[in-house]
């Protein structure tokens, strides 16, 4: 089968489309014939091997996992021992290992049935970004109707989901984005849009119940100025190309600050689970949430897709089509 592989850390130029052995599902796993996948900042961070602290998990000299891609949507090809919920022929979506390939294996627990009214592209765009928005707003931000919520990075992969989900919860949403994305963020449902090229939202007179920060650029002190006394800041991003010290600062400063102020600063990474994936699929099928796909690429163009994402200004999700068109 064809798969995207890298044998050393580097830029997207080190990615290769190679013939590799078709994987076999292990215990509790499902083998998926991939129809579509999508990429996330984690993919190019793992590819670059930076910050170097990450290599303690990814491999010191060479990457342990040489197959990028987590988001997946496709058709069940085979099942491993112990799998009870899926059978060959079922259409599924969720999280896996090495989704930029014709076939990939995923734990049954990280998959959900793809609703019939949802395309493979839409389903592949949802897992990481959609779960991050849903779990971050609901579980960590405790978003409620009537709250004022600011989404920093509203036009990105997570941000486009976050604007829509926060509005669904009844919040008054302010989106922060660049000039070229103002109309997009308005169309997604933001009541107010701040163009960061013209205005610094941290110097505004507005006060927010919840800040959902997809970038992690603002200092906690600056963010506090626009947070209500009991406000919450959920940080799911970080500096675009951080050093190890930058990363540690992003992780530790908010946590330490939360010990001494009334506001809360939370660092968050989503966890794939079937129930939340099922909920996302239902929201997409009913039209309450629409994945915004900014660019589409073929499997053989994955290096180009990662290079685009690496620039840090991708609109919405970047999808890789692997199988036949819907």
What does this protein structure show overall?
The protein has 326 residues and is α/β, with parallel strands linked by helices. The protein is 28% helix and 26% strand. The mean pLDDT is 91. Helix 4 packs across helix 5. The protein is globular and about 60 Å long. It contains ten helices and 15 strands. The strands form three sheets. Strands 3, 4, 5, 6, 7, 14 and 15 form a seven-stranded mixed beta sheet that branches. The chain has a six-stranded parallel beta sheet with strand order 10-9-8-11-12-13. Strands 1-2 form a two-stranded antiparallel sheet. The relative contact order is 0.17. Helix 8 links the parallel strand 12 and strand 13 (264-267).
Q: Strand share of the residues?
A: 25-35%
Order of helices and strands: EEEHHEEEEHHEHEHEEHEHEHEHE
Largest sheet: 7 strands, mixed
Rg: 19 Å
Number of helices: 10
**Count of individual beta strands:** 15
- Class from helix and strand fractions: alpha/beta
Helix content: 25-40%
Distance between the termini: 21 Å
Low-pLDDT regions:
none
Mean pLDDT score: 91
Shape: globular
């Amino acid at each position: 089968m064809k798969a995207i592989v890298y044998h050393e850390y580097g830029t997207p130029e080190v990615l290769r489309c190679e013939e590799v052995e078709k994987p076999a599902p292990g215990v509790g796993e499902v083998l998926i014939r991939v129809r579509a996948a999508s990429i996330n900042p984690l993919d190019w961070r793992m590819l670059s091997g930076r910050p170097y602290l990450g290599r303690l998990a990814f491999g010191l000299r060479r990457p342990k996992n040489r197959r990028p891609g987590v988001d997946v949507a496709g058709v069940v090809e085979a099942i491993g021992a112990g799998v009870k919920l899926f059978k060959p022929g079922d259409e599924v979506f969720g999280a896996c290992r090495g989704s930029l390939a014709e076939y990939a294996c995923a734990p049954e627990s990280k998959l959900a049935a793809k609703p019939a009214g949802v395309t493979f592209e839409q389903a592949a765009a949802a897992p990481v970004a959609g779960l991050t928005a849903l779990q971050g707003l609901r579980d960590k931000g405790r978003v409620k109707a009537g709250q004022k919520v600011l989404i920093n990075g509203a036009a990105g992969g997570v941000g486009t989901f976050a604007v829509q989900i926060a509005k669904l919860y009844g919040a008054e949403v302010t989106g922060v984005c660049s000039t070229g994305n103002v109309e997009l963020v308005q169309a997604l449902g933001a009541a107010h849009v701040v163009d960061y090229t013209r205005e610094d939202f941290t110097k505004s007179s507005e006060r927010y119940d919840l800040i959902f920060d997809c970038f992690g650029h603002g200092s906690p002190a600056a963010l506090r100025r626009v947070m209500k006394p009991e406000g919450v800041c959920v940080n799911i991003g970080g500096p675009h190309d951080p050093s190890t010290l930058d990363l540690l600062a992003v992780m530790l400063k908010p946590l330490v600050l939360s010990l001494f102020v009334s506001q809360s600063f939370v660092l968050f990474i989503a966890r794939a689970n079937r129930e939340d994936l099922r909920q996302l699929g239902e929201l997409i099928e009913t039209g309450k949430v629409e994945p915004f796909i900014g660019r589409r690429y073929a499997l053989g163009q994955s290096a180009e897709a990662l290079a685009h994402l690496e620039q840090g200004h991708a609109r919405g999700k970047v999808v890789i089509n692997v199988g036949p068109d819907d």
